């Protein structure tokens, strides 16, 4: 018997008239929690995920059935480190690009707020190149807290653990807020964005990095597109993320494609997986290349 999963309406506009768009051969909502554990993380295996519907009102792609908060806490507690399939140099280059993209227009002073900073890739750039007076870092994974603190380069900082509680951060104090591949993991993204907006200074900026479900890569890969997975209760495109940010109270929203760096080896294996080939034993180049492929960067202002 399948577990009792959360049932919800559109998390962006609240409408309850979705149209099914994508499902895996074995639908997650018809399986039990224990049956889903082996599919929680990892690539290159059978795809199992909760069916995604398109909201007919705002266009958001979301899963009407999904894990509840307790189930998610249980699953995330046993999750491997972020991006452990992508070597450090490629990941570092990608994160450097994210900071450079927003630093061109953001006020790099006041407070710095990041939800889900992991070990502090962007935090380190902000500490070295900005003039922030306090770093507010919300990272549920306590195992990375020591390394995250080191990324602050000795600057005043506070590390919080609850993504749903930003009350320690003073309202109107943050010059730059950052969410890299966090928004599409949240059950209530509208409330999260509204909470972040309240913390921004009048000239502050929020940078969001997400997958783009309207990308060419998604259309080519279909059901095998990696972001179709058990960790994403919703997925965005430029129109739907703009609508969400506007509903959260942001006045200006700009969306563009982001550049990500991947090892050639990693990309080749992804391509082979898409067409059903296994090339695990084929030697491939490990050099990285930068591509604007499948992800987007959103910069929002109050």
Layout of helices and strands:
Blueprint: E1 6-7, E2 18-22, E3 26-27, H1 33-36, E4 48-49, E5 52-55, E6 61-62, E7 65-66, H2 69-76, H3 88-103, E8 109-115, H4 121-129, E9 131-138, H5 145-151, E10 157-160, E11 174-180, H6 189-199, E12 200-211, H7 216-221, E13 234-235, H8 238-247, E14 252-257, E15 260-263, H9 264-274, E16 288-291, E17 295-301
Parallel strand pairs: 3-4, 8-9, 8-11, 9-10, 11-12
Antiparallel strand pairs: 1-7, 2-5, 5-6, 6-13, 12-17, 14-17, 15-16
Helix pairs in contact: 3-4
Task: Describe what this molecule looks like in 3D.
The protein is an alpha/beta fold. The protein is 27% helix and 26% strand. It contains 9 helices and 17 strands. It has helices at 33-36, 69-76, 88-103, 121-129, 145-151, 189-199, 216-221, 238-247, 264-274; strands at 6-7, 18-22, 26-27, 48-49, 52-55, 61-62, 65-66, 109-115, 131-138, 157-160, 174-180, 200-211, 234-235, 252-257, 260-263, 288-291, 295-301. Strands 10-9-8-11-12-17-14 form a 7-stranded mixed sheet, sandwiched between helices. Strands 2-5-6-13 form a 4-stranded antiparallel sheet, with no helix packed on it. It has a two-stranded antiparallel ribbon with strand order 1-7. The radius of gyration is 19 Å and the shape is globular. Residues 82-86 have low confidence and may be disordered.
């Amino acid at each position: 018997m399948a577990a009792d999963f959360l049932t919800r309406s559109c998390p962006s506009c609240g409408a309850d008239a979705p149209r099914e768009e994508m499902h895996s051969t074995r639908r997650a909502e018809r399986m039990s929690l224990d049956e889903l554990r082996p599919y929680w993380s990892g690539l290159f295996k059978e795809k199992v995920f909760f069916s995604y519907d398109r909201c007919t009102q705002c266009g958001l792609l979301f899963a009407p059935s999904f894990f509840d908060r307790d189930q998610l806490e249980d699953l995330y507690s046993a999750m491997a480190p972020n991006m452990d399939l992508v070597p450090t140099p490629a990941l570092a280059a990608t994160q450097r690009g994210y900071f450079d993209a927003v630093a061109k227009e953001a006020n790099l002073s006041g407070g710095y707020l990041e939800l889900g900073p992991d070990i502090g890739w962007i935090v380190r750039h902000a500490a070295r190149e900005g003039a922030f007076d306090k770093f507010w870092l919300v990272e549920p994974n306590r195992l990375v807290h020591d390394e995250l603190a080191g990324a602050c380069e000795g600057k005043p900082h506070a590390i919080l653990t609850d993504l749903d509680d930003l009350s320690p951060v003073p309202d109107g104090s943050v010059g730059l807020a950052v969410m890299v591949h966090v928004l599409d993991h949240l059950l209530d993204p509208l409330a999260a964005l509204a909470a972040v907006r309240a913390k921004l200074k009048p000239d502050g900026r929020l940078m969001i990095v997400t997958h783009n479900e309207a990308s060419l890569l998604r259309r080519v890969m279909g059901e095998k597109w990696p972001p179709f997975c058990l960790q994403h209760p919703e997925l965005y495109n430029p129109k739907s993320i703009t609508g969400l940010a506007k509903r959260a109270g942001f006045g200006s929203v700009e969306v563009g494609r982001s550049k990500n760096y991947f090892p050639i080896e990693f990309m080749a294996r992804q391509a082979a997986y898409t067409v059903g080939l296994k090339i695990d034993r084929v030697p491939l180049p490990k050099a990285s290349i930068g591509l604007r492929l499948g992800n987007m960067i959103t910069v929002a202002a109050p």
